[in-house]
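Retro notes (design track)

What went well: tokenization of the new backbones is finally stable.
What didn't: we kept losing track of which sequence belonged to which structure.
Fix going forward: every design gets posted as structure first, then sequence, in one message. First example under the new rule, 193 residues:
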């Protein structure tokens, strides 16, 4: 069977299970960048994230015959697998934090130039900076919840913590992010509101 770029993800997944290496190549082309972004959000290391995703694709080829036959949502399946491999990497590196960590002080250097052109890119960068300033466990919980769209129960199971701890970490994250971004968002409102 010849694999075409017009194949659906499900058709490609079926062809991969059947031993078509070109199906793996096409899935790689379609999903590599987004799967790397998923992994980077968790492991905070682009080289490690790329290794995780590449190893995952190699493993898919090795275990192609045992891939689930009823997979109709290939993208979410791949994303969940890479997310789990990323969490395993953190666990193996002993980077899944055990303590809550202290929230950093909001930086006094957050002063904004009132005349500066504020664009969505700058706002997104500030949000990313704020997320990166969260204590490690808090950041992981927030990223898993809001960017990876995992439920509190899935997060708790993935990190080996209680659902209540997940809820507490989300509360801490929201509080910190509100405080950290308050001045910036007020300025945007004043300039554009």
């Amino acid at each position: 069977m010849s694999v075409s770029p017009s194949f659906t993800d499900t058709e490609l997944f079926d062809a991969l299970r059947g031993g078509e290496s070109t199906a793996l190549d096409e899935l790689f082309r379609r999903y590599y960048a987004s799967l790397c972004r998923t992994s980077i959000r968790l492991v905070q290391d682009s080289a490690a994230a790329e290794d995780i995703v590449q190893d995952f694709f190699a493993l898919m080829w090795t275990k192609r015959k045992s891939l689930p036959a009823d997979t109709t949502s290939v993208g979410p399946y791949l994303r969940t697998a890479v997310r789990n491999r990323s969490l395993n990497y953190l666990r193996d590196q002993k980077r899944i934090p055990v303590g809550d960590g202290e929230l950093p002080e909001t930086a006094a250097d957050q002063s904004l130039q009132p005349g500066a052109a504020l664009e969505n890119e700058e706002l997104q960068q500030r949000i990313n900076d704020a997320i990166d300033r969260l204590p490690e466990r808090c950041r992981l919980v927030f990223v898993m919840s809001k960017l990876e769209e995992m439920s509190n129960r899935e997060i708790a199971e993935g990190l080996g913590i209680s659902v209540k701890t997940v809820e507490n970490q989300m509360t801490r994250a929201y509080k910190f992010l509100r405080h950290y971004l308050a001045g910036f968002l007020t300025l945007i409102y004043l300039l554009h509101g």
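Added context from the reviewer: The first helix runs from residue 9 to 17.
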